[in-house]
Batch of 4 targets.
Target 1
Amino acid sequence: MSEVGADPERAAVPGDMDGMRADRVVAGVYGISRAAARNAVDSGKVTIDGEPVAAKDKLAAGTILAAVLPEAEGPLQPLDARLEIRYESADVLVVDKPAGLVVHPGAGHRNDTLASILIHHYPALAALGESHRWGLVHRLDRDTSGLLLVARSPEAHADLQQQLKERSIQRTYVALVGARVEPATGTVEAPIGRDPEQPTRMALRQNGRFARTHYRRLAAWGDISLMEVKLDTGRTHQIRVHLSSIGAPLVGDKTYGAKRAGRVTIDRVWLHAARLTFQDPSLTETTTVVAPLPAELVNTLDDLGEPDDGAVSDAGLVSDL
């Protein structure tokens, strides 16, 4: 696969990349930089049913790609680092990712990601390779902590990807925002796409991808609110963009809001993937996994003291934490 004429590597477009541009899909699926993906697409090395794809083509989930790509970076190397497992079965792992850790290899990150840590602790995942993203079913931003699903076989990966596509996996987050959110419950339904002025940002875009976020205020301290957030879709930066759009940027989010919110300062985005409910392929009943808040987030709540409205323990979600 190191030169033109080699056998192409085939891979399916995963459910959470449905409708994305071809160059972005190729980068994510094959674990290469966006620039390398664009070069491969532009040079005709990525095809669908024998026909070259264009970088701007929008690809549907399940579409089979065939790509001939260089492997200059070599196979992914294991990394001996701590791995927090919240759930384990024959088919599935649920990992509690710390803030600051990149999930997949990409530009500027190869062997220092969660994927490398996974293959150190679970060497069999290396066999799933880049086409199955070493078992990783979905993503979290680098500065978001919390729960991630990992499949332990191609069959389990396909099953969990289908659950994502059908929106049957329930993902619940806890967020601290720099506003008193009124009304206390609501839904943001607005399409999200790449910001044409700043390509590293996402924005509300009329021609973007459908996105829907539900929220509920759990507690408030003046102009700061603790929120429970549930996703119907999983677009890049979805919670950060949607909450910012209603005037409630996440505390610590330098991209979509201010890094300060009243008395709260923190060197990460105040967002935690706290609960996952899914169907383990090997079980008949649904499985729910909860991740405690990391210490740095607990400390900010302690510093805020008693809320003037609601309570940190108002929801079953937070009382579990």
Target 2
Amino acid sequence: MQRHGKETMKYGAVLNRFLPGILENEEATKTTSQDDISQNVEEVQKIIGYDFNDRNLLRQAFTHTSYHKDCISYERLEYVGDSVLNFMITKEHFSKYPDLPPGLLSPLRAANVDTEKLARAAVKHSFHKYLQHGKPILTRRIQSFINVIPEYPLHSHGLIDAPKMLADVVESTIGAVFIDSNSSIDTTWEVAKILLEPIITPEMLETNPVKKLYETCQKHKLKVRVVDMWSHDGSFEVFVDDQMRGKGMCHVKKEIALNRAANKAYNEVIGMLSVGNINI
């Protein structure tokens, strides 16, 4: 027992010797962290071309719920930004395309505010580097998304998995600007335009792969059959006139697996029709 007491005193002495340095390093880490956050705010303001009156709004816009249990996350700002962005895009399209019917205005708006479009905007402006979160898997998902973007310069139209958190932070930033600018639509639109460039126009709009496949096959009286095996192995198979023309896989999202299968089948059908010199 006496020896145990001596060892305790010995380790206690060692701890007392190093404790001031440990505490000093902890304070330095906190200071560095605050300095980093302040620098991030400055950099993001330069990116979006807007100086905040309340910088806490911008910090909040880049804070995910997983950052730590007591954090104020971007969820409320995202809610505002989502509504404001949809309104601004609707207003812009209504003015810019006076002859475009609602049936074409709706998909045009969707293409400019969907998850992939906004996630691309986040990557283009390096928002992912400033995002505060506690999910290591998200970093890997973002990198996978960045790696595949060059294959689809403008939009994949449902063929790639875009991390929703990237889209969220664009919406929360727009929401933060809207709140900070005293609900100024004009000021918020100036920021949104910078983030969303290039804005998709009617000429740039493409049809969803599933719709393209069905429209083409219907035109040429080809029978389409889709086999759903997603719950089994994350895949879909598409048969055209009883021949398998496309298989797509995506374990994360069912819709993406279907789109990939339909896209492969569509390209096969187009190739087949071209070989037969059939007017597509």
Target 3
Amino acid sequence: MNNQTKRVLALLEMFSKGEIVIIENLMNHPLWYGLSEKTIRRDLDIIKSNLSQSFECVRTTKGAYKAVTNSLLENFVDNKMLSLLVIAYNIAKKNSLFSSLDLSKDDKYILENKIKESSKCYEFINKAIENGKLNLDMLKSIEFAIKHAHKITLKYNANSEKIVVYTNPYKIIFINENFYLVTFADDIFSVFRLLNIEEIAVSKDTFHKNYEVLDFIKTMQTPFAKFSPNFKENLIDVKIVVFAQKARYFKAKKFFNSQVIEKENDDGSVIVSYKFTQTLEVKSFLLSWIEDIKILEPASLKDEMKEILLNSLANFK
């Protein structure tokens, strides 16, 4: 076994233990003592070029390396996961959420840099539209209250009106490019924009979570979702025709989780159905496609949309 083989095996052993390999420190190691920095880098290059199918050497800080297994990296570069990670990274970075992750400084650095690399191929035009940074201390208080089912008192700025609410926190959700806190207490389901919460006080009192509410949160499609007991039995069926010139967009993208292509017509149009808790959830969406769709049902939604359009005409006089 020649000296370079011994050095490469020693590097592999260090990496397998999760150690950070620092070039400057290696120069004092018996195997590398008296050798140049270029020699050490050549040893690292052997691992990078010949064992890249097993793991990847990732630079953490200047002159320092750590190995990340490719089974982990493959999860990062899966098409769906990559998109989610990049979005999550952008949100987390903007709101200082990385500081709350239970990771070592070097591991955070690796995670940030691996996701940053996606910017070479991806550009996310639609950014999270939060205008300010989230209060990290307040966020931690909310997380604690959710995890341990503690009641909270929150001060909230609702359209310039300050309100105080004593409630039960269930989940923090990210929907329609904003963060919200979902609460439920005394049969009242509420969704609070996180940036509009001015203060949180965690109570010593605890509560028992309603599992139907938790199930409902998983099915939410908009911040305007309205909870009711046995909600699955009370959903409103919405059905539209999408004209041929725009049908391909609806076939290619699921705009809401409940979207189903019911029928593809001979003229190229498609019939699309949705399920919502109230028509308020879908009105803005339908308005954005108003020239390219026809509402089939419910009749009450057609009447509501007609009224919106007629009232809007006054704005163009």
Target 4
Amino acid sequence: MKKNLLKLMCLSLAAILTFTACKGSKPEENKQEKEENTATIQTIDAIKEKGKLIVGTSADYPPYEFKALIENKEEIVGFDIEIAKKIAEKLGVELEVKDMDFAVLIPTVKSGQVDMIIAGLNPNPEREKEIGLSNVYYESSQGVLVRKSDLASYTSVDDLKGKKIGAQMGSIQEEMANSIENAQVKSLPLITSLLVDLKTEKIDAIIMEAPVAKQYANNDEDLAVPDFVLESEDTGTAVGVKKENTDLLQFINETLDELKADGSIDKFVVDAISLSNEQAK
């Protein structure tokens, strides 16, 4: 009898301890969940409250984004910047543009230091795992920039085999360069640094989006674009946001759809090319 009574008391004590432990863990779990939600969610309301849309870009990629002297003051311009202005305008806030190396754009938006990134960003499955990507707002092919004196040597993609090829660090073009047979790939954060290497014969060619390559060739008589393009599934460009910011992404997509429908993006591209040409004179 005593044995049964002792067993019953032990079971009761164990049940009480288990209930207490479970009961005590819930507030801590709720607190952790609340902290995670607070840390990761940044809404349109938060952007409106601070009064500005903070945008990350890499301003060495005309006509997408580049630096220009406007009324004796250096500004970051380009058709990507005009799109960002429209998004900020529609939100009713100011636009703040932060210039940085292309390779750090995704980590920067993931950490919440900027609200969105726009920099000729090609969407692909790897990037979709890390950040939220908008609908494609502009499509172009991938091209090559070479020295004009060597132009005759480049008639097809095969002529890039075994060459010293430059590409922007962290870009789709870097991946493409690494896929070329026996290519010696040099990756740098800035296109402008790659241009110096091309002109001083440290590299033979640079892979970049065709409109950008043509723009650099138009602005420099020593450079040229061969008459072929590189095959790639990543032909479009998109805006990037923190993955959790779904409301902002939806807002951006709606704005992009409007700008495409009324022809604004096409006009922004033409104006940016024109401005880039003027700056080169």
